[in-house]
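[Solved] Which block belongs to which protein?

Original post:
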Amino acid sequence: MLAICEFLTASPELAKEYTKKITFHDNEIIHKYDYVKNNQFILIEKGVGKLEFYRKRRWEFETFIAQDEFAGIENLLNSQKYECSMKYRIVGASEGTAFLVNKNFFLDHMYADPTIFHTVLEHIALRHVLTAHNFREKKSPLKQRVADILLEFAIINSLPILDNQVSFPDYFAESMLVSVLRAPSHHVFAILEFLEEQQIISRLPQFIIRDFARLKRLSNLHLALIENTATPAI
């Protein structure tokens, strides 16, 4: 996605008119969706954001928007056919930078470059696979679902697997599992305690998957996808 940022800002004059680079901090609102006024995509250049939806009079964590990813997928809908009224916001999980990009400017560039078009499709396809999996497995045993979501977070954040271990960043919190799974917190924490007793994870001082292979066996998520995605950065 960094290539997209570079492509979108290749012309300083157009970039000034149609894009805006912003710096964000932990827990700072990066972007708030307004379905009446919205006409922007947001691209994360550096750092990580949290996608939160407004449900039952409160903001709830849904997933991460990691470096090189974008939000604003609803802008791909034809506004003359569909009205998108979901209420969401992107909040900083860490410090970073992002681009707010005009919808039409983004789409024009996407269609003009096959590489960017493929990158956008790949992003959408990955999210679709994960969303479909979560919907299909939503009634599966909670132990499996906890493993599913931990592996999903590793995929989205491109966390490296080193010596069969995956270290989670400081912005991860166990309460995020509760929010995503929509399960009672004491049940989720009981599963985490079990995994810790089995030496599959450790929770303090940092959350670490200590035995990635065993955690994968508890999950029903597509393993090839995990192995191809969560690789060390070069």
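(Second protein starts here: sequence line, then its structure tokens.)
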Amino acid sequence: MMGNRSFSNEYLKLFVMCKEFHCLPYEGGYLDQPAIYIEAFEIIQQTINQYQANRNRKGVR
């Protein structure tokens, strides 16, 4: 289980860096990126969206 958490942390770090610097992990466009990164980024973004929606629904800012 700890190994999976380590990979998850790496994907999360990469996601944050890509968002912050407005770049992709590899050269090229969206379709040039490794599928595992795109899948991980989509899951992370969906989780963030769900969390924010729940907070908004509760009126927490």
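Accepted answer:
You had them paired correctly. Confirming on the second one: Residues 2-58 form one domain.
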